[in-house]
């Protein structure tokens, strides 16, 4: 999946992955696809909850080896 922006938070624990994607989203146009990469397994619960709370769209979330990768489309 081709994302407009990639945010790699590998090695960081909660709440850093969500803080970093939130920061990235603030400067993007609506409809932009963001790829979030994390090694924190908490992302499986945190990213869907954050998307629901913010109105952004969780396109996909999957595990790739030791990494969790989520694709989120900015609302608007």
From TrEMBL:
PROSITE patterns: UPF0033. The keyword Cytoplasm does not apply. Signal peptide: none annotated. The keyword Magnesium does not apply. Gene3D superfamilies: TusA-like domain (3.30.110.40). SUPFAM superfamilies: SirA-like. Residues 7-31 form the UPF0033 domain. One of its GO terms (molecular function) is transferase activity. InterPro entries: TusA-like, TusA-like_sf. Keywords: Transferase. Pfam families: TusA. Belongs to the sulfur carrier protein TusA family. This is Sulfurtransferase TusA family protein.
């Amino acid at each position: 999946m081709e994302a407009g922006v990639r945010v790699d938070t590998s090695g960081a624990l909660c709440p850093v992955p969500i803080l970093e994607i939130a920061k990235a989203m603030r400067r993007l146009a609506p409809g932009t696809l963001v790829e979030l990469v994390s090694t924190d397994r908490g992302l499986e619960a945190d990213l869907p909850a954050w998307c629901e709370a913010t109105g952004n769209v969780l396109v996909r979330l999957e595990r790739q080896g030791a990494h969790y990768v989520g694709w989120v489309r900015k609302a608007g």
